[in-house]
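Table S2 (continued). Query chain:
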Amino acid sequence: MKNMRTAPEFQSLADSIVQLAQNRIVYFIPSPGNWGDALINAGTFQFLDSIDCNHTVLQRSELLKILPESHEQGILDALILVGGGGGWCEIWSSTRSFVREISLKVSQVIVLPTTYDLEPIVGTGDNVTYFARDLEISNRRLPEAKFCHDMAFFLDLSVPQESTMLPRVVALRVDRERSTQARNFEFSVDMSLLGDAFSSVLPLFEIINRFERVVSDRLHIAIAGCLLGKDVTLLPGIYPKSQSVYESSIRENYPESRFVEWDDFQFWPLNERQ
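Corresponding output:
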């Protein structure tokens, strides 16, 4: 698998976690979402195991139940690792809201690699450390964020090689993040909706590994194709999240992949590079 485990940005993230953990209890709060978010979570689990980070996994609702209800009760002396992703934009803002709520009640928070398309949370102190998974959108919104590749790029899996390969799979999104310029394709399937953030990621990789080429406007379907060494065409969604990650991580490391605007894309013939 063509992952990016040796990238220095992952070591920088590891150093930050070790520094802030000290003698605190560490909680990892996985990202909610679809099957694409499962790649983020699976990569994060492998990453934390690789740095021997002793941690407890909690869902967001479980963490909220154990936090102090008021300042009079003090704060929880813990390091909270908030799963990264795209939950910091107008369409999906749950991660931003969650970090705002917990940052006033715990010692330290690290937001794992995320795209920041909204302003940083208001009213928090210096106990939140931000990691951005892109150098474009996030740098404009939150210039103090440290860069690290999306946690899915840390994944290492043994995926069976198929003896017979199909030419291509088209996997286009059907949710609110779909671009207004997107076009329909009769044989497309939104694979990200076939699982959720806590599904096993191996079946997704097994499906994608049956194809020579991957065409998608889903960032993590494209990332899965990159990790498998496929020929990948990534199309935009409604905001420049995918292009920003492409420019920051994919372009240089996965030369068989490309980002194409909808106006420049033609479904057929898909045997030609676009």
